[in-house]
Write a structure and sequence with these properties.
This protein has three helices and six strands; from the N terminus they run αβββαβαββ. The chain is α+β, with helices and mostly antiparallel strands. It has a single domain, classed as Gcn5-related N-acetyltransferase (GNAT) (Aminopeptidase), CATH 3.40.630.30. The chain has a six-stranded mixed β-sheet. It starts with 16 loop residues before the first helix and ends with a strand.
Amino acid sequence: MAGPADISISTHDDHPKKEAGVVDHGLDEFNFAVAPLHEVTPLSCFARLPGGEVIGGAVGRSWGPCAEIQQLWVSEAHRKSGIGTRLVYAFENHARGRGCNTFYLETLSFQAPRFYESLGYRVTYEHAVYPHGVVRYTMVKRVG
């Protein structure tokens, strides 16, 4: 076995696929050994035009009584028309069917914190360390 003095460290300005895959696999192996992550289930919903074109979506996951919205997007041409609200509610309703009563997400200050607040989410953590005054908010909504 190599000793600490025999180990070399390399740095990169990208994520080499092979090396990043080794890290992902190792972390997954550890995490799945110590937590029931096999219970995490994907969840998504999409807004479509009559022809089937996707113009928005909410993508996330649920785990036990919690559901996380990881991504919410509505095409620019359809923003401010209530589609985002409908997507969030559809996501939450589907998650409620799985027994979820706690919803959470992260959003940046230039994205949609006020939108989520209007839907009952509350900021539980602010991470104000980013350049240009950008803040990352962790937001939570509990129902029932």
